[in-house]
């Protein structure tokens, strides 16, 4: 006998395939949602990591900027201190010079002559004095020219003194101050 299937098998097959399709579709949606969640979590983690790196770089930059400012302040202070030290060294180096200048002024001063006023402007020394005679003034000029500490004496004025110093002549003289070089400069030491 022939078997006849009277059940609606095509509808059942269609319903079963439709159910499989829905299950597969729901599974695909769940897998897609899971993958998108994992991808989103991964991207957010990378963004957070990059933001933390950016924050670290910004903080390090701020720290370096403050260190640079501190270094600039230290350099400025160092330059100021060096300038001060240079001034002090210059003063220390020139301190014995004025003593030598006064010593040379006394050594070159002939008898019968004295100074009433001394002024120093840079390397130029201006003198006002009294002399018994003009020959003593010329003797002073020769001695100043021969000195290692002075050069170019220039007599600007010789006049008779006031009544209190009868017989004396007043003179105005200027001379350039020189700093003699040490005798052993330029010699080689063995």
Automatic annotation (TrEMBL):
Transmembrane feature ranges: 21-39
GO biological process, one term: type IV pilus-dependent motility
Pfam families per the UniProt record, alphabetical: PilN
Keyword Ribonucleoprotein assigned: no
Keyword tags: Coiled coil, Membrane, Transmembrane, Transmembrane helix
Segments forming a coiled coil: 57-91
Keyword set includes Transmembrane: yes
Protein name: Pilus assembly protein PilN
Organism: Tamilnaduibacter salinus
């Amino acid at each position: 006998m022939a078997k006849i299937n009277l059940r609606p098998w095509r509808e059942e097959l269609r319903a079963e395939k439709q159910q499989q399709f829905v299950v597969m579709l729901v599974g695909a949606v769940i897998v897609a949602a899971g993958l998108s969640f994992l991808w989103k979590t991964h991207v957010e983690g990378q963004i957070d990591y990059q933001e933390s790196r950016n924050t670290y770089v910004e903080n390090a930059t701020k720290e370096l900027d403050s260190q640079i400012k501190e270094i600039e302040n230290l350099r400025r202070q160092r330059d100021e201190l060096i300038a001060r030290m240079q001034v002090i060294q210059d003063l220390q180096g020139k301190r014995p010079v004025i003593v030598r200048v006064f010593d040379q002024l006394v050594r070159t001063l002939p008898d019968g002559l004295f100074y009433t006023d001394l002024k120093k402007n840079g390397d130029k020394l201006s003198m006002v004095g009294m002399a018994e005679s003009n020959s003593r003034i010329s003797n002073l000029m020769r001695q100043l020219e021969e000195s290692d500490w002075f050069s170019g004496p220039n007599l600007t004025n010789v006049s008779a003194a006031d009544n209190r110093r009868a017989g004396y002549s007043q003179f105005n003289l200027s001379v350039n101050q020189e700093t003699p070089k040490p005798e052993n400069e330029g010699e080689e030491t063995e």
